[in-house]
Write a structure and sequence with these properties.
The protein is built from 7 helices and 18 strands. It binds succinic acid. Succinic acid binds next to strand 17 and strand 18. The site of succinic acid (SIN) has 9 residues, from strand 17 and strand 18.
């Protein structure tokens, strides 16, 4: 297999050409994909046709399936590990999570061991209107954001730990008591070291982060807001314009993402998502 990697004009994002994900990948080919994933943070493949079982098998090569809380309510029938994200309603019922990811975030940052990555398979995407794609997803490179900080800010952040609370983020779905109890507040370093590349990445988001350990609350919220805005500055962002058949993976340490909610029925958007666990890098 000849794999071609085409970088986006942004500090994250690369298209991988020459791969048919429905076919078995040998160890060398998979290593090339995994290397590209670690390096670029977001990789995508156009014109794929992955059945749910194939999606799960592909996802499993990057890390064990991480069962997302939305799998309980919006899992694909027969494949609860695949979360459906969609604005479509059938028989008056939402078939997937609506307006998922409408604020900048990193998946499941509210857990003690956040997942390594996430895959979205685009089944249906809104049509392009007047040359403008709808329902794009934006990805902000957290390593580039760290690198761009002043030395004084890097020194200030050294050793700081933020508090992450599931209930902090305003969500499209009402948070249940069960979810609140399942996800007590956790802490993570504001500067995370990527387990494979060793790059330093900023890990802080507005709302998800509800404080900084040992810091006055006003000062903490102001620093969180400053960093959150810095991370998503346009020069750190890759914007993905979806086509049906795209398979896209992102690294939850290297990027944060946000789904643009600029479409509505009858424009349909239907995605299948898996999330895979943190992996231990090779020694
Ligand atoms: C998500 O945050 O997982 C949803 C992303 C998207 O639908 O583009």
């Amino acid at each position: 297999m000849t794999i071609d990697i085409v970088r986006a004009a942004a500090p994250t994002g690369a298209e991988i050409k020459g791969v048919d994900l429905s076919q078995p990948l040998n160890a060398d080919d998979f290593a090339a994909l995994e290397g590209a994933f670690n390096e670029h943070g977001v990789i995508f493949f156009r014109r794929q046709s992955l059945a749910p079982d194939q999606l799960l098998a592909f996802s499993d090569r990057f890390g064990a399936l991480e069962f997302n809380t939305f799998g309980e309510t919006h899992g694909l029938p027969g494949h609860p590990g695949v979360v459906v994200i969609s604005n479509v309603e059938e028989d008056g019922r939402e078939i997937g999570v609506k307006r998922a990811g409408e604020q900048w975030h990193s998946d499941m940052c509210y857990t003690a061991k956040p997942p390594r990555g996430t895959i979205l398979c685009a089944r249906e995407v809104p049509a392009v209107v007047d040359g403008k794609s709808l329902g794009d997803t934006c990805f902000a490179a957290t390593h580039a954001a760290y690198d761009d900080l002043t030395d004084a800010m890097k020194a200030r952040l050294d050793g700081l730990v933020a508090v992450f609370d599931f209930a902090g983020r305003k969500r499209a779905q009402t948070i249940t008591r069960k979810q609140r109890e399942a996800f007590p507040a956790v802490t993570h370093p504001i500067v995370r070291t990527h387990p494979f590349t060793g790059r330093k990445c900023l890990y802080v988001m507005r709302d998800d982060c509800t404080g900084i350990v040992g810091m006055d609350q006003d000062e903490a919220l102001s620093l969180i807001a400053e960093l959150a805005d810095h991370i998503v500055r346009p020069n750190h962002v890759y914007r993905h314009r979806w086509r049906a058949g795209d398979v896209l993976l992102w690294d939850n340490c290297t990027v944060q993402h946000k789904a643009i909610q600029d479409y509505a029925l009858p424009q349909r958007r239907l995605m299948h998502r898996t999330t895979f666990a943190a992996a231990t890098p090779p020694a």
